[in-house]
Amino acid sequence: QSVLTQPPSVSGAPGQRVTVSCTGSSSNIGAGYDIHWYQHLPGTAPKLLIYANTNRPSGVPDRFSASRSGTSASLAITGLQAEDEAAYYCQSYDSGLSGSVFGGGTKLTVL
Amino acid sequence: QVQLQESGPGLVKPSETLSLTCTVSGGSVNSAFYYWSWVRQPPGKGLEWIGYISYSGITNYSPSVKSRVSISLDTSKNQFSLRLSSVTAADTAVYYCAKVVLQASGYEYYFDYWGQGTLVNVSS
Predict the structure, then answer these.
(1) Do A99 and B96 touch (CB under 8 A)?
(2) Counting C-beta atoms within 10 Å of the first and last residue's C-beta, which end of chain A has fewer, N or C?
(3) What does the DSSP assignment read for A53-89?
(4) Cα–Cα distance between B52 and B107 in angstroms, integer?
(5) Touching check for B67 and chain A: CB below 8 Å?
(6) Closest-CA distance of chain A to residue B112, Å
(7) CB-CB neighbors (< 8 A) of A68 in chain B
C-alpha cells in the first residue's frame, strides 16, 4: 500500500489528452511539499519528468505538465504518442516518515 | 551527464545480507552537495525509497528498513553501496541507485538520474 495513491491504469488514443492523479494526505502533498513525476519503461532507468511541481528538465516535451491542489496532484499529457506508453510515478516528502514517498504507479496505455 | 550502474548478486538467501554497489560515471560521488540514493521496486508494486547518503557521508534511511540498512561511499572507486541485513522474501525487488537533488528546504529532494536497476531474489 503506497503512501501516495494513483490509479493503476489510464488509457487514451493518439493525439488525445490524459491525466494521471496522485492523492496524498496532510503529511505530504497537503502539507505543501513539492511533487515530482517520473516516467518508467520496464527494464530501463526511470526518467525524471517533472520536478518541484511544474518544472520540466531539459529535453522533456511541453506536452507534459503538472498541477496540484489541496492533497492531490495531476500529471497531464497532451497530444498522446505511442512512445508515451509507460508507467508514471509521483513522489513527494512525508513529514511523518521523514523521507520520500512514491505513488504506486499508473500504467498508461496508448490505444 | 551522470550515469549510474548497479551491480551485485541476483540471489540472496533468507536471513543473509544483501550487498549492492552503484558505480557512478560523469560525476564524483564526493562532489559538494551531491547526494546518492537507493530505491527498490518489489514485483508488481510501486517504488520504495530506501535511503540516501550525502557527499560528506551523512545518511538518512526509511523507517521501514532503518534497523537493517547501511549505505556507504567509496570515493576511491567512485561508488556507493547498499547493505541490507536479515533479508526475507519481502526484500525481493528490483533495486535502483539514483542521484539525489536536495532542495532548498534541506529535507525535500528528488531523483534526477537513475540506474537501470538490478533484480535481487531472496530465496533458499
Answers:
(1) no
(2) N
(3) TTBPPTT--TTEEEEEETTEEEEEE-S--GGG-EEEE
(4) 11
(5) no
(6) 6
(7) none
Instruction: Give the chain A residue whose CA is nearest to the CA of B44.
Output: A104
Per-residue pLDDT of chain B (124 residues; tens, 9 = 90+): 899 999 999 999 999 999 999 999 999 998 887 899 999 999 989 999 999 999 989 999 999 999 999 999 999 999 999 999 999 999 999 999 999 999 988 889 999 999 999 999 999 9
Question: Which of A33, A44, A99 has its CB closest to that of B62?
Answer: A99
Q: Do residue A52 and residue B48 have CB atoms under 8 angstroms apart? A: no
Long-range Cβ pairs for the range A22-27 (8 Å, 24+): A22/A72, A22/A73, A22/A74, A22/A75, A22/A90, A22/A103, A23/A71, A23/A72, A24/A71, A24/A72, A24/A73, A24/A92, A24/A101, A25/A71, A26/A71, A27/A94, A27/A95, A27/A96, A27/A97
Indicate yes or no: CB of A91 within 8 angstroms of CB of B47: yes
Residue for cell digits 562532489?
A: B31
**What are the tens digits of pLDDT across the range A33-53?**
999 999 999 889 999 999 999
Which residues 6+ apart lie within 8 Å of B59 measured at CB? B51, B52, B53, B70, B71
